[in-house]
Amino acid sequence: MGFSSWLRRKGKAEEKKTPAVEADSVINRGQSPKQVPVSDSRETQPQADEQGRGFFVRLKEGLARTRSSFVARIDTLLSSHKQINEELFEELEEVLIQADVGVETTLRLVDEVRARVKAGGVTDPAEVRPILQQTILEILSTHTAALSLPETSPAVIMVVGVNGAGKTTTIGKLAHRFKSQGLRVVLGAADTFRAAAIEQLEIWAERVGVDMIKHQPGADPAAVAFDAIQAGRARQCDVVIIDTAGRLQTKTNLMRELAKIGRVIEREMGGKSAEVLLVVDATTGQNALSQAKLFSEAVDVSGLVLTKLDGTAKGGIIIAIAAELGLPVTLIGIGEAYDDLRDFEPDQFVAALFDA
Ligand SMILES: Nc1nc2c(ncn2[C@@H]2O[C@H](COP(=O)(O)OP(=O)(O)OP(=O)(O)O)[C@@H](O)[C@H]2O)c(=O)[nH]1
Ligand SMILES: [Mg+2]
Asked: How far is the CA of 9 from the centre of ligand 1 (A)?
């Protein structure tokens, strides 16, 4: 199977799930956006045209560790070779595997680069860089999907992932984003496994200024989801975001619990399912990949959120995830501030990674 048909095959999962409504069209249904101050560490808010550049700089900063372990090493490697030979490709494979691109993806990626080098009659090692960049961009572009809100009223987003992956933080950031777009948000504290989990979500709800529905610790998480949807309806909210546990006594219990929450949401929403965001921690490298596989067996994951890209040199995992799972990467986390949750835009991401 050739490279492009492999990519297409991997992209099938995402083609099946056409987003019902793009976030923007929901956001624009006749509401005037309210301005909410973004309280991140920077003192001034950039103007609209500067904002893009500011975002790009921030993205570059966030990816600094991956860039230095990955692209910087590739640059060193390419400049140390006078000609393109098999040794160069082998070293390239080594760098990619060490950056957590994964063995399968690395081999395919380098095969494709090798083929393109040959087809283009390229002889200068420096010219391998843009070819590699383009090939990575193609992989990532096949596996993205903008965050979409289900057409239901309210739209329900369920957030899943192992403990510590960044679910609650992502929910806080998302709630902030929706609120600043003029949407009414309610959070559901369905991680009832730990009392501290409820408190943590509550802190975010207060900080962002949105409602939250909670029960006692140990309560049935599906009942919390049910109540959050009811409250969302009664309060005419646009979005209900459900936090879930990342850890239970056993994996089987956790998966069963998540499936049950999913069923309750579906029943309440007249057969329409929630947008299910799977949060994975980029710093866990290849582990993130196996987590993603596990969760997508239990729930119908609609998009991935890759967090903590700022804290890792293993950002190459995003390429493995995109290429091997066929699940779209929807959002990335590049820090702990409100606006450090970004839509995953492959061209911007690859540009930030490869930018000198
Ligand atoms: N640097 C960085 N830290 C992050 C990011 N996202 C989350 N974190 C941090 O990761 C830690 C765990 O995040 P949580 O949101 O509590 O994770 P969780 O998945 O809800 O964890 P459990 O509730 O235990 O299942 C917190 O200290 C967050 O501040 C990110 O994108 N970058
Ligand atoms: Mg949590």
From this structure: 32
Q: What are the tens digits of pLDDT across the range 71-101?
A: 999 999 999 999 999 999 999 999 999 888 9
pLDDT digits (tens, 9 = 90+) for 258-289: 999 999 999 999 988 889 999 999 998 888 88
pTM, rounded to two decimals: 0.84
Q: What are the distances in angstroms from CA 255 to CA 228, 294, 336? A: 21, 9, 28
Domains of the chain from N-terminus onward: 155-301 (3.40.50.300)
Average per-residue pLDDT for the chain: 85
Question: What is the amino acid identity at position 98?
Answer: Q
Which residue, judged by its Cα, is nearest atom 8 of ligand 1?
A: 166
**Of ligand 1's atoms, which has the minimum distance to the CA of residue 164?**
21
Ligand 1 first shell, C-beta below 6 A: 161, 163-169, 191, 197, 246, 279, 307-308, 310-311, 333-336, 340
